[in-house]
Amino acid sequence: MGSEADTGIESPDGAANPIDTEYEIGQDNIQAEIGPFGLDVHNPVFLISGLAIVAFVFLTLAFQESVGPMFNDLRGWLTSSLDWFFLSAANVFVVLCLFLIVSPLGRVRLGGADATPDYSYAGWFAMLFAAGMGIGLMFYGVSEPISHFTSSMGGIAVGEDGLRTDWAPLGAAAGDADAAFDLGMAATIFHWGLHPWAIYATVALALALFSFNKGLPLTIRSVFYPIFGERVWGWTGHCIDILAVFATLFGLATSLGFGAEQANAGLDYLFGISVSDTSKVFLIIGITGVALISVLAGLDAGVKRLSEINMILAALLLLFVVLVGPTMEIITGFFSSLLSYAQYLPALSNPVGREDANFSQGWTSFYWAWWISWSPFVGMFIARVSRGRTVREFITCVLIIPSLVCVLWMTAFGGTAVHMVTEGVTAIAEAGLPIKLFTMLDQLPLQAITSFIGIVLVIVFFVTSSDSGSLVIDTITAGGKVDAPVPQRVFWCTFEGLVAIALLLGGGLGSLQAMAVSTGFPFAIVLLMACYSIIQGLRTEPKAVGANSEATVSKD
Amino acid sequence: MYQKMLVPVDLAHVEKLDKAIKTAVDLAKHYKAEISLLGVGTNTPSSVAHTPKEFEQKLQAFADDLASKHGVSTKAVAHISHDPAVDLSKELVAKADELGADVIVMASHVPGIADHIFASHGGYVASHSDLSVFLVR
Predict the structure, then answer these.
(1) What is the pTM of this model?
(2) Closest approach of chain A CAs to the CA of B22, in angstroms?
(3) Which of A197, A312, A325, A556 is deepest in the core (most CB within 10 A)?
(4) CA distance B88 to chain A (A)
């Protein structure tokens, strides 16, 4: 890394220390006219990832019997035999993020010492939530605490081979309802709290740093400059970017496919709309259609506005449950769940010598692989909207606050539902995953209104994942350009919907989702290297105190 | 008749601007108008500049060069857009009003089939701005 004097690269806003590279953004791009439309795409990345996705869809559809189990076995094998690796890696990300908050490196400002934030806290926060986790909270907010509570109550069961057959976390809490509740909440928060957000924050921070401060293109490969040097512009980098596009598109398409099934079940429960392929395909077309309108309206008028609407709706629903539900119980529950989270955190995150293999491999390790496979997409989107924040602000807002919101959400929805179940409302426990939220809302007043808000939230959260995902894929496949011609993002958005429909009708959603989750493994390695890059990158940055500080340039 | 002329420039494709710039310079000389060169850049690194600040400097250099070559008075106006692929036209119109320009001279291409689906920047500006717009094709 050179200093400013010999690079010819002007400094960003205020002091910063850009990387000296011969690479010119867009130099590998091909700009072509296809029919009446202009194109500006990165040469190998766009074509190879597009073709690979088509090939995988065809292979899966054509050889379902052999390919399906193969991907599922691969995923199962990775999350069970490499559980120690996933658990350790996630711990590393949490430790790194917490360290950056307190370390002096946290004073580095993304975009240079004098950069000012692009987005207000509200808009920024709405976007990072809507892209990363919103949809999961809708589905698992009620069901996961119930699952862990029930399995903990059931206690430890040992099979004939001496292995545990129960799915309870840690040592379970047979018959002790209070202890099982605490353990269940702790396990749920563990899966939705610090660890997933640390994974997202690590990727996002690395991308933001290397793009805004170091002047490299906004694409995943740039993070690896400190490790691979100029080679990131060659095939090493192509592979990283292609893998990112692959994981993102399949992650989005399969969750869109499953999401359509779940939304259909919800609509059936609420309005009696029959569960059929036709309704699901219409749902996918509808979601993709709204996402298309959103990407055509752009980042500010489309994606951001939709995320904000969603945030307000989600906040209203949360507020409603807190006020109309058992208010005091939820408020005290928030603190007691936080406490039990802190209490069980060391045991839950312990990567080796676990006795609760079903839980640590089937739940935790699977979740970690899943979050990691989503991280290129969510991380890159967070990075794009985070310019102008200091590292400390960034980590606080991407790690600490979302984790606290998740705790509140899980307490309000999950905790309340668990109490309902223990009080004898068996309907919630018996309901299928997609309609658990609605059976829970049924127990509260005004269920017609709240359920309607619930289903709207589910559908719009899919839209906000789909539109931000299309922007991310478009940027990666355009070699880091954010101003590529509009037809390209239309292409990716439509492509995602088509892949979802093909997999839904042809079968193969499950196997390709397993495939997408499996990419969590190579990405976990990639992310561990990114940790090194972040530290390296931050150490060569001058530190800023305020928005317009005259920071002194530290010469390396 | 005109005092302040707005000329949007795309620094990534300077070679395509020749005719529009020539037109703008001739008009500016005739009416003794000032040329505001409006460049729309991004926050993320692009082929033109790695940072918004570098973008500003490059635009300034372009404006200075034009002024010294043709003896017209120029001003560089850099605007950073969050999503230029979509927002560019809208921002051009807004920026022209903000700067108090009285005429816009900009390069555009001959309309094709695609322009019925995705409006060209020139076409959008001509139909949405209150100002006189000179599209150079």
Answers:
(1) 0.89
(2) 26
(3) A197
(4) 10
